[in-house]
Write a structure and sequence with these properties.
The longest helix is centred in the last third of the chain and has 15 residues. The chain is built from 7 helices and 9 strands. It has one domain: 3-Layer(aba) Sandwich (Rossmann fold). With 189 residues, it is α/β, with parallel strands linked by helices. A hairpin with a 3-residue loop joins strand 5 and strand 6. It has a 5-stranded parallel β-sheet, sandwiched between helices. Strands 4-3-6-5 form a 4-stranded mixed β-sheet. Helix 1 crosses helix 7. The chain starts with 7 loop residues before the first strand and ends in a 6-residue tail after the last helix.
């Protein structure tokens, strides 16, 4: 019996839209969905755990990973920190025939589309730009300058919605999660 490679699902959207929140809900309620853990050069936010939320690495280690071809995609996000998806774990998961989900930014989604055009691309959208801004301010993890940088990036990212196969409006986390896993072909509960 041979295992057919599974189809990768890529979840992307603007900053503060709730990608991390939806991904955490997927992890909690749908443990059969494997969620890739990205590498980043940014410092951990309060409560984030290395290897669970991100692989927190230094700039030199990140550059080594890029040079060695170990990242499926990578980008400098908000003009500051680098984020990337380790290639090996994703390829191994797909080869085993198991569902895999990447939660990444727009730049990363475009790179994955170039290298894995058969992947499924899902855009997570806010109910409104005002709600997106409220969420960003409400999480309290960025100073005013960083918030403005992220909001400027978000305006550009929102314009890319048409590049995606599916759009989910994140107006309710559990509903958005259920819609995402349904798109992936997993029975909702």
């Amino acid at each position: 019996m041979t295992t057919t490679p599974a189809r990768l699902t890529v979840l992307a959207g603007p900053t503060a839209v709730g990608k991390g929140t939806v991904s955490a809900d997927v992890r909690s309620r749908y443990p059969e969905v494997w969620l890739s853990v990205s590498a980043t050069t940014r410092a951990p936010r309060p409560g984030e755990i290395d290897g669970v939320h991100y692989h927190f690495v230094g700039t030199q280690e990140f550059e080594r990973m890029v040079d060695a071809g170990e990242l499926l995609e990578w980008a400098v996000v908000h003009g500051r920190n680098r984020y990337g998806t380790p290639r090996g774990p994703v390829e191994a998961r797909l080869a085993s025939g198991e569902p895999a989900l990447l939660e990444i930014d727009l730049q990363g989604a475009r790179q994955v589309r170039a290298s894995m055009p058969d992947a499924r691309f899902v855009f997570l959208a806010p109910p409104s730009f005002e709600e997106l801004e409220r969420r960003l301010v409400g999480r309290g993890t960025e100073d005013a300058e960083e918030r403005e940088r992220r909001l400027a990036t978000a305006r550009v990212e929102l314009a890319a919605e048409s590049e995606f196969d599916h759009v989910i409006v994140n107006d309710d986390v559990q509903r958005a999660t259920d819609e995402l896993v349904s798109i992936m072909g997993i029975a909702t509960r």
